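Worked example (supplementary).
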Amino acid sequence: MTHALQLSHLSHAWGHSSPLFDIAQLSLLQGENLFIQGPSGCGKSTLLGMLAGVISVSHGQLEVLGQDMAGLSSVGRDRLRGEHMGVIFQQFNLLPYLDVQANVLLPTRMFPSRALAATQEWGDAQSQALHLIQTLGLPQSVWHQPVNQLSVGQQQRVAAVRALMGSPRLLIADEPTSALDEANQLEFLDLLLATARRQAASVVMVSHNPQLAHRFDQVFAMPLRGHA
Amino acid sequence: MMWLNLAWRSAWSRRQALAMVIVSVSVSVLILLGVQQLREDAKRSFSNALSGVDLIVGPRGSATELMLYSVFQIGRPSRNMGYEGYVALSQLPQVQWAVPIQLGDSYLGHPVLGSTPEIFSRFNSQGRGLQWAQGRAFADPLSTPEALSEVVLGAEVAKRFGHKLNDKLVLTHGQSSGLGTEHEDHPMTVVGVLAPTGAPIDRSVIVSLQAFEAIHVGWGMGISPSAFKAAGGAQQALDIKDLQPSSLSAVWVGLHNRAEVFSARRKIESLERGQLMAVMPGVALDELWQIVKVVENTLLLVGMLVAVSAMLSVAAVLLVAMAGRRKELAILRAMGAAPLALMGFVLLESLLVCVTGIVLGFVLCQAFLLLGQDLLRTEFGVLVQAGWPPLQAWWALGALGGVALLASLVPALRAYSLSLSDGLHPPSV
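After joint prediction of all chains, the assembly is encoded as:
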C-alpha cells in the first residue's frame, strides 16, 4: 500500500524558541482519512502548512504522496500541491471577483495535469465540476452565480468542489466546518469524506472539535507543548 | 493567458480605485508630453514667425533688437537706416523683393507699421500668407492719393476696438497716448481687416509709407503741427513725391535663390559704407530662443516631477491595496501558485495600470492638441503638429516607463514577501 503521508521525528520551531511540536511517528495510507485534533496554538496549522508544502521542513522527515518534502525545492512543493492536493480553509476560500464556474475551474486552468485528469474521467472539466456540485448538494443554478451571493455553507461546498477538481490525491482541510452551524457541520463533513473516498483521495483535516473525530479512519491528537 | 485574465478580473473588481490611479498617471503623462510638444511647437513657430523672408536689414547694431522690433514690434529702433540703403539693396541682382518697415507711431497702444502694399503679399507666418477678413489692402499713394488716409488693421486690433470698414481713427505720435500728441489733423479710414494669423501682425495697424510720412508733415521737434504753427514754424505744402521718407526702421528682403543668402548678406552689408546689417530671421530667432531656455527647462523639470510623483502615488495606492489582497494571494497560493508567480500576478496589474495611464495620457495629449490647434495658432501664434511626439518626448516616456516598472515592483515585492510569510494563513482582516 502506498502512503499519503509518512513522517517521523518532525518538529518545528519559529526562530530560536522551543519547538512548537515534535511528532515521533505518523503515517496515513493512501485513501484513508486523518483527523488531527488539538487546541488552538498547538501547531496544527503549522503542521498543515508543512504537509501542503508552504512551510519547509527543518527537522525530521516528511514524505507526502511519496515525495520527500525536505528534498523538494519550494517551487517543487508548490507544484506538488497544485497538481495533487486540494486545500480548504475555514472560510473565504473563493475569489470574490470570479463566479462559481471560474472559481471551480481555476485549478484545472492553473495545472494542465488536473485538467487532463478531469477530462480522462469525465470527458471535460465542466462535467466533473457539475457532477461534484450535484454530489455536494448544491443546485446547478449556482454555476453562474457570483460567489458573494452564496451562503457561507454554499461557499464551503463550492470550495470543496474546487478542491476535488482534477481528482487530487490529498485533501487538506483546516477547520472547514467551523464557520457552519452544527446541523450543517456533519452533513458537509460526510459529503466531503464520501466524495473524497469515491475519488480515492485522502483527507487530512484539523479541527478543535473532537465531536467530528469519529467520522475518520485515523485520529491524531497534537502533542501538548513540552509533552512530546 | 490565465494569469492575464485573472489579473484583469481582479483589477476590474477594484476598478474605482485603479481608475483614479490611471487618471493620475495619464494626467502626468499629459503634462509631460504636452510640455514637450508645446515646447517644440512653440520653438518651431517662433523660428517661423516670419517665414518667406530671407534677410532682415536694418541699421548696424544688435541683431536681437532688430528682430524684436521689426518682427515682434517689441521695443523700438534706437536708430534708423537711410532710405538710400533700401533703394540700393532693392537693385541688387540677388534681391527679388524688398519690403520697407517703418515704426514709431501707435494706435491705442498698438504699433503702427508703415510699408508698401507689397507687404500683404510677401508676409508669411508659419508658411501661411495673409488672408483678408474684410476689405482690401491700401492703394499705392503714388497712383491713388486717397491712399494717404487708408489704413489696414490686424485681426486683434479690429476685434479689440470693434472696428469695421470705413471707421475713422486717429493715430498717436510715438508710443505714448499723452495729451497733444494725437495726429488728429490726419484721420485715417479703415479699408481692410486681416484674418487672424497668430503672428505679431495681428496686433498691428498698417499704413503706407507715404501715409506714415504725411501724418508727420508739419511736425517739428515732437510737437503737433498746430502747436508748431502757433510757435511760428513754417507750414510746408503737401506733394506726394515729397512724402518719401528719409529713413526706415528695417527692410524685409526676399531673394531669388535662398542659397545665395550669405553672399547677398555680404553685398548688403557692404552698401552705404557698411552702415547696414542683414540678419537671417531663422538664425536670429533661434538665438533669441536660447534666452528662454531656462524657462523651457524649468517646465520640463516640473513635468518630470509631476510624472514621478504620479508613479509614486501608483506605488503607494497599490501597496496599500495589498493589505486587502492577502486573502486573495493566500487562496491562489493554496492552489499551488508559487510566490514568484504571485509577484508576477501583482506586477502584471501594476504594469497594466501604468501602461493604460501612459497610453491614455498620450491620447489625451494628442486630442487636446488637435482640439486646441486653432486657438493656439490664433491666440498664441503657436502652430501645433499633433502626431508623433518629438524624440525627446520618447526619451521622457521611456524614462517614465522605467519609473513605472520600479513603482510596480513595490507592491509586487510586497506580494512576494506576504505570500511567503502568510503561507496558507493570512491574518484575518
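Two points are worth noting when inspecting this output. Confidence is low (pLDDT under 50) at residues 233-237 of chain B. Chain B touches chain A through 22 residues (CB under 8 Å).
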